[in-house]
Amino acid sequence: MNTNLLNDNEAKFMNTFQQRILNGALEIINNRELSSLKFLSKLDIFKLIITNCRNIESTLYSYTIQVLNLSNCNIVSIDNILLENLKVLVLSKNRISSINNFTRFKKLIELDLSHNKVVDILFLRQSKIEILKLQFNQIKETSIFSSLINLKELDISYNYDADIKPIQLLSQMTQLRVSICNFKDIDVLNTLMNLEQLDISFCKGINYQQLENSKKLIQLKAHQIQNQSYNFLSLLENLKELDLSENIGIDLSRIKHFDKLTKLILQNNDLKNISQLCKHINLEYLDLSNNLGIDITSICNMTKLKVLNLSDCDILSLIALKDLKCLEELDISSNPGIDTSALEFLTSLIKLESQSNDHQNIQEFKYLFNLKELDLSNNESIDITPLQYLIQLTNLRLQYCSLYDIYALSPLCNLKYLDVSDNYIIHIEPLKKMTHLSELWLDGNKIHDFTPIYQLQFFEQFVITDQEESNRQESRLATQMHQMYSSNLQHREIRIKHQFIQLRSKAILQEINKIICKQTESHCFFANNIASIFESLSSNKAQ
């Protein structure tokens, strides 16, 4: 690379670009200007992700792309997608109602059309699709499923008028999600011999007893079981993951025999006594959130627990958890006045969420030496002094905590994500040494001087908004500086925010063009507002 043509910052960017782009994946996000995709023919990439880009009109052509994601791009038709070797196509959150000439995707094995307006899926006939996602559409006729002899995974949830018959669900299917669908034939599950994962939440017209034939079922999600017919659960002896949320008054004795269960979700069931769960000593994941007044004493026997959610349970103490030496993730949010003194025993915690708990003194937090992620948002009287001991923290959220200073955070040099928005902070000197920061949120404060963070070079996202009018110019300057040269090399990617000044220089465009011609090794490139770059590349190639 001829770095003589580039300034220091441009040379640094290009060295990183050369290592990361091409021969891998390209992702373009939130680009409202991008319309031409002609540059793709110049890139040897196998994966393309374009999301939240609303003006794509040109033909998309490439020999190499095998994975294409065009989510939320305002797409109505896919007639302009000419990718002969495409294997995975994601078109979720668009405006597609029908598809023509689908036969050209001869190698396609995975299709995601979720959150569209699809009514007719006859275009799928004779396709080799193995994974099909159609949730949140307007599908009624489903007879086509019987012809998809390779289909293994199907999600047709939230198609309220879909009429699914037993003959349409093939025996080789391993995953089925049909939540909020009405079935006219109650024996619709009768043929699913090889089913491993099933979601039948909020469904009507199902004969649950037919699950007796699904001996391989290991994952079941069944919210609001019709007529509270829990007898069928005794047939599912191989279950490893079970979600019975929103089944008010459920009898937990129905699941006490599941000795293979490792994950159990019982959200919003109005549970009080969970003593029937005491024998589930192999549980690793337990979610009891939104069960006000629940007695958690029985949890003390679940010594293999790694993840526990007790948010919105109105619990007053965590003493029942003190012997859970394997616990890594804990959510105790929205339990105002909770006594957290028992946290000093949970030294294996890696992630802790404790929002909206009216915390004041949190001295016991200083013993959580292994903690990496912490959320203490919405605790308006909290003293954050003990946080200075948590030097392993990488993610910290302290929004809406009525903080006037953040000096206690000075030792936290490993932070990558910090949100202290909506406080009363004036001085930000403690951020000087946080050279690993990749995302920083400071909006809603009273900051006057941003110079302490001008030397931080690794921001992916730096948000300073809603400042006093007298500070707006300096805020914009700080934002521009750190968004202009943002990168995060540790994650093998570059994230670029509004780099018009840097990337429009003739020298750097020439260097990018050289890299594309050489097809050098790299991994992934993420960009915002880069239409001008690729247009320049196309024009340079033409010349």
UniProtKB/TrEMBL annotation:
Keywords: Leucine-rich repeat, Repeat. It comes from the Eukaryota. Signal peptide: none annotated. SUPFAM superfamilies: L domain-like (SSF52058). It holds the Pfam family LRR_4. This is Leucine-rich repeat domain-containing protein.
